[in-house]
Amino acid sequence: MEKESKKTSRRAFLSQTGMVAAGLTLGAKSVSAKSYSRILGANDKVRVGFIGVGNRGTQVMHEFMNEADCEVAALCDVYEPYITRDRSKVDPRYIETRPRQIPKMGEAFPNKVDRYLDYRQLLEDKSIDAVYIGTPDHWHALQTIHSIEAGKDVLVEKPLTKSIHEGRAIIKAWEKSNQVAGVCLNRRGSGTYQKLAQEIPAGKIGKVTFAVSNHVSNMYPSGIGKMKPERPPKDFNWDMWLGPKPYRPYQYNIAPYMFRWWEEYDNQVLNNGVHSLDLIRWLLNEKAPVSITSLGGRYVVDDDRTIPDTMQTIFEFPSGAIVTFTQLEASSGSLVRQGFLEMRGTDGTLYAEGNNGYKIVATSKGQFQTWDKLMAEEEYVVKNVGNGKLSDGSYANPGANIVRNFLDCVKSREMPLVSLEEGHLSTNMAHLATISLHVGQTLKWDAEKERVVNCEEANDLLSYEYRKPWSL
């Protein structure tokens, strides 16, 4: 994929988007970016600090550790066993109820690694070049902006934000900086999808009019369970975990990890759906939908969740393509015949079967048509050659390609594979799906002004009030 310089990208960015006046501030001493700049050579190691080293943060940290030019400089988390990397100190209830989501830890770091319970202390370390942010979604905006202001390059986990206004505020902060910043929307790290992102808009399967993807996980009947508020473990800083969100008592089925079923902190359209929504928007070469309609609710799963167990959203794009994303957590079986994404064109139907392959089936003629086939069928597979590599030279895991690209960009100062703007636009689709469900009506979206044009109640949900001392 062709890379463009940050300077060029910014000119394009300013010409294509309307900057919304917004910003994030914290009632603490600001950090000068100039005092933290360090020029890196091609052979230098990039010193990376990791903010949030639980389930996902550990996975990505290991991908960084696989790169010879990366040095783990510091770890930060609100749960002390995660920064000491001692699984024996983890609350037994966590391991019992979510064993796959509690990292094994015990890594052998070849160098001294600093440990922090407050990410602001990590950002004061002048020797750290870049940070990875793997905290819960409601922390991404503040931590990304503060990292940029501290002169750190940033790779932030998806979804970029918990509100649409946060995304534009992040971009405004980045625009005033000299930092490299990218988002972990991992399918953009796949050579297969980089290929399709060139070919589908060019007409490979004809004019695309429909696409469908879904997230399916049958959590019936008990889901994340029902629990009462209680004290968190003594080494878990619950107040810091909440951050800008309103205070509420701790519950064991909120954190760690289970916050993904609580609307205040996340939801499954943001968590899982954003990957598919980003891929679809990319393959359609579209900026944003013009119409969004969601239906759904908590129909049968009997737990404490505050998000739907069943939901479907329909997006309409300016080009005339209709896209559906369906979240099913009270049944099983994919809505897609093959793989996880189906994209229908006039000439053929694309089935995305994974990061390393796809299948295209030619369409058949309908009423009154005399043609046989409008295109040849195709099956594309990139072979795994071992050691985590594919025959095209990339990693089999596209997330590892995102990490490798980010380290390269830290040195070259080029734009990462997934820019903040792209991450913002794709995350907006998930936010709009949730807002449509909340207000119970179809939303008409003005992507230039980033406003809903037919529902002021929906516009009230484009941002939220931060808990002091955190502020938006």
Would you write up a description of this structure?
28% of the residues lie in helices and 20% in strands. With 472 residues, it is an alpha/beta fold. The chain has two domains: 209 residues, Rossmann fold, CATH 3.40.50; 208 residues, 2-Layer Sandwich (Dihydrodipicolinate Reductase, domain 2), CATH 3.30.360.10. β13 and β14 form a beta hairpin. Pfam families: GFO_IDH_MocA, GFO_IDH_MocA_C2. InterPro entries: Gfo/Idh/MocA-like_OxRdtase_N, Gfo/Idh/MocA_oxidrdct_glycsds, Gfo/Idh/MocA_OxRdtase_bact_C, NAD(P)-bd_dom_sf, TAT_signal. GO terms for molecular function: nucleotide binding.
Pick out its properties:
ten-stranded mixed β-sheet; single chain; Dihydrodipicolinate Reductase, domain 2; 2 domains; 472 residues; 20 strands; Rossmann fold; disordered N terminus
CATH first level of the largest domain: Alpha Beta
CATH topology (fold) name of the largest domain: Rossmann fold
What is the makeup of the main sheet?
10 strands, mixed
**Given the helix and strand composition, which structural class is it?**
alpha/beta
Mean pLDDT: 91
Q: Percent range for helical residues?
A: 25-40%
- Give the total of beta strands: 20
Q: How many angstroms separate the termini?
A: 36 Å
Number of domains: 2
* Global geometry: globular
How much beta, percentage-wise? 15-25%
In the predicted model, the low-confidence regions spanning at least 5 consecutive residues are: 1-36
Helix tally? Answer: 13
Q: Spatial order of the strands in the main sheet?
A: 15-14-13-12-8-11-10-9-18-19
Query: Roughly how many Å is the radius of gyration?
Result: 22 Å
According to CATH, the homologous superfamily of the largest domain is NAD(P)-binding Rossmann-like Domain
What is the CATH architecture term of the largest domain? 3-Layer(aba) Sandwich
GO molecular function, one term: nucleotide binding
Pfam family, one: GFO_IDH_MocA
